[in-house]
Amino acid sequence: MEQISMQTMFGDDPHRAEKFHIQWGDFLFDYSKNRINSQTLDLLLELAEEVNLKDAIQKYFSGDRINVTENRAALHTALRSSEKSILVEGVNILPEIEVVQSKIKAFAQSVISGNRKGFTGKPFTDIVNIGIGGSDLGPDMAVEALQFYKNHLNLHFISNIDGDHAAESIKKLDPETTLFVVVSKTFTTQETLSNATFFKHWFLQSAKQEDVAKHFVAVSANIDKVSEFGIAEDSIFPMWDWVGGRFSMWSAVGLSIALSVGSENFEKLLEGAKEMDAHFESCSFESNIPVVLALLSVWYNNFFGCETEAVIPYSQYLKKLAPYLQQAVMESNGKSFDRDGNPVNYQTGNIIWGEPGSNAQHAFFQLIHQGTKLVPCDFIGFVESLHGNNEHHDKLMSNFFAQTEALLLGKNCDEVTAEGGQDRFLNAFKTFGGNKPTNTFLIQKLTPKTLGSLIAMYEHKIFVQGVIWNIFSYDQFGVEYGKQLANTILDEITTGNSKKHDGSTEFLLKYYSDIKIE
Ligand code: F6P
Question: What is the pTM of this model?
Fold first, then answer.
């Protein structure tokens, strides 16, 4: 296939898109602008059979301990399921999920309506979500994406241990009308606990200790640690160890989403994800969006040596999609040992990056068009504009279509000359090789439901790739080591008791402490 260009394949068969697309509900997935023919697709589908994907999907949905290295299930799909029973350790988990969902609903309604008030009797105006990683990126992305549906509450997301992040947000907050949602599955994460403590101190400058209960709620699987922090038990929204942090926005981690857009919209988000789950679980592989998407990604990653994939949503609302997917994809599939514990001798996790179009066009598209690297891209666009500014929307979408066409077709020297390029030297710089692969998602409208389906689609893509690469996608031991070292170094910086390091780190630490002392 390396020798066959897409330009030739489209020349031979102008109706390729009819063969290589999947239409599902409000989604049109056109994957015809890829370096594949029917045989490639058949072989990739055979690969999916060979790794027994069907069986893996069944285990994923039914609560098997597919997160082997942490000895638990990865059951984010249960959070949006309408099954009657899903068993974990012999216990049906669906009733407890329902209890938490009702609690989210009641709480969100009471805050949005103004019935729940702050310590001076005023309704809340601002919500501060304190969390990091999966306890921040999912809700932050969804709140941004669903801005069109939001109510009067102002949402703030504080994640970074950088004190300037918290300090900046304080400028916009009034302690009397601010509600803090502390989100941490483990409730041991340095960033989250430090930021929560910082905000508690700030709050207590204006309020009394007993007022904390009115202004601080927590989402966590570690009830004891939350209580230790001083948050009342009835203000805790539980989550469970079978929900991975980066897949947790469907749980109470999504509380900030429910506060921002109301619980009905939060339920629609879950509904959209549920529909994608049903599609993924039941559709034959050739008509299965996450499966085909994952196979194409494996095709470029493992057969073409592509290191990265770009995600380009043509919607400013989706500006936080790429950072969200970076954690979901890279924390999951950035692994180098197979499921038997042997080092892999093939490439695994893709590097994800991206920005909304058309901004991205004016930033990094040059490299995708004319650089030396092959970067497969997902283009995500919507048929309808939310505010109904059709003039702008048609311009936006004309860019959306034009870019995938330009990436496919390129422009040869004859075409440049025909356009009036007389300078042969310059003409060379103005040619485009084309033959650059893109997936196009054309979705009816950005709604809570379609957003839910879109995110679930990527979750399942991650899962399929983990199965094909024979790696464990649901642990993240790689993140832990840096955290341990940071704790050791913090101890050194604060006590002055230096420890053994590599030469560079020792040199840097000495410089940092000496400068501080001066
Ligand atoms: O970065 C590692 C990580 O464990 C992520 O997987 C997780 O989303 C994040 O830290 C936050 O963890 P917690 O919700 O326990 O504070």
Answer: 0.97
